[in-house]
DNA sequence: GTCAACTGCAACATTGATGTAGCAATAAAT
DNA sequence: ATTTATTGCTACATCAATGTTGCAGTTGAC
């Protein structure tokens, strides 16, 4: 593969992710146009629409997996691991804004990978519960859902907040809440 | 209009909202089939796809508006109004799970109504800030986003939790967070 | 019982998206 | 300079979704 080909492929993936996030039914033609390449070129790279989606998901899963690895969720102290995870995952959510939960259902392989990553995070949340970092009356599944919701919110609705500050905001809201206590 | 016609219309709207929430590109044929009516019947009720979407949005906006009215966001004490709003809005989110922010962009009228409702809630959040119910370092827009995220999360990912308990969970996570302090 | 409204069904036209193939032009690699 | 890979463009076939029409059957209202 030549250099320009690789550049085009990556451009299509990123542009596609952005457009598909706004409108999951965005046409291949629209993605190609936004990426600045011809429609047929996209079809040469990706056998069909599914293949394009799979490639986008895989790119997101790759990035997310790297973040999970580097956060050392099982070894590092909970507050440290949490912050490292947040600082890593927020840029991933921004770069690949596609909603993996909804759009990957037809792709069993990607779905399985996603489940595995989800399980790693859930295990971490459970550890946070067990080690007393969360209140005893908090359900682990609820805590997990809250964390995901906060990440998505800061990632997509506040793109101007840089990753370290965003991680602070999320960790703070997650652990302390927003009210005066 | 006869009784069965009204029943069918309402059934199409609710079924459509449910399917469109899972997959915004769900076909009219799929919605009609899930609602148990013929495809042409749906076309008789709604001139086109846009009209069907508009009707769904309008139904959601009507319900949400009623909740905002009854919560007395400007008069009632903040904690009371917050809880009343949550207990009302969570069933609305569940009954009409469509993502209004994304899907109403092509409908300026509905978009304007949505903006107006959004502004009412933002004003309420601002009052909560001003009256000292939120920490002084909390940005009102961030607080607003967190509240929305928590509502969506409990509404869609924990459908088994009933509305009063769900409202408690959200208000608690919003004000106090999940961590030990 | 009659009438009006409503429905399902079949058929049809239209449109937009998808996917393929061929060909000429271009640019990197050798 | 020649080869090779890649691209844009055009044309085409296909398919799924949309929207319309006519007709016969059913059901509620009067």
From TrEMBL, chains A, B:
It comes from Herbidospora solisilvae. This is TetR family transcriptional regulator. Pfam families: TetR_N (PF00440). Keywords: DNA-binding, Transcription, Transcription regulation. InterPro entries: Homeodomain-like_sf, HTH-type_TetR-like_transc_reg, HTH_TetR, Tet_transcr_reg_TetR-rel_C_sf. GO terms for molecular function: DNA-binding transcription factor activity; transcription cis-regulatory region binding. Gene3D superfamilies: Tetracycline Repressor, domain 2 (1.10.357.10). PANTHER family: HTH-TYPE TRANSCRIPTIONAL REGULATOR BETI (PTHR30055:SF234), HTH-TYPE TRANSCRIPTIONAL REGULATOR RUTR (PTHR30055). Residues 6-64 form the HTH tetR-type domain. The keyword Transcription applies. Residues 27-46 bind DNA. SUPFAM superfamilies: Homeodomain-like, Tetracyclin repressor-like, C-terminal domain.
